[in-house]
Here is the input.
Amino acid sequence: MQRGAGTAAPTVRATASVDVVASGVLTVGSYTNYPPQIYVDSRTHQVEGFDADLIRAIGQRLGLRVEIISLEFASLPEYVVNGDVDLAISAIPVTPSLQKKVQFVPYLQGGEALLVQQSNPLKITAVEELCGQRVGVKVDTLEQEDLTMQSENCKRNGKAPIVIAALADQQGVIQLLLKKQVVAVYQDAPQADYFMKQYPGHFELGGPITNTTIEGIAIRKDNSSLFQAVQRAMAAMHKDGSYHALIVKWGLLHEETSRS
Here is the structure.
């Protein structure tokens, strides 16, 4: 049974004492410019998003006040290793190289997705079908690199290259699709789900999610008490439905993970 919106979450303590940087505080490092997972709301100036809600719920269950510190994405593992923060959450992929530095509690499935117009008029199902088409993407992303490589493949195969419309702002990219100035937007799968929720009846996925990854909460390798506490809090949230409630709230229905 799912927890109602007004029901207080129970406190779940994995150990008698959880090892944290500051007494009574869960210090969280995050890159806070990645909606819908974690970002600073322009109206309230508060950190919001799925990741923010999740880590606050975990902190509440551990009896800790959560303090989110905005950091550069690439530096997050080092802040964890150095003990500057207790943990990091920000759509961090669980990779073999990062697992050598930190330990992860998995919490979400990520990947890449094509967002297209509702009813998918061009029947687009993969980036390989985008030769000669204009496609939106955010600058300096893996998706932009993927499109560039695919565009080169198009030319090698005697086809027209992809016309890549790269913008610095994800909302600006989505506006291109809303105005039908591009045939598709290539982005992270959680973002695609989020924009389908934000603009109901306008968009759908063009084909399956690809390059799937598991995202994890990064914790220092020697901090077993915190690692176990977060694991147990996550398990409790899966069991009582509060994890799924956050998935629904943020529209991340393709990214939900089951309890491992």
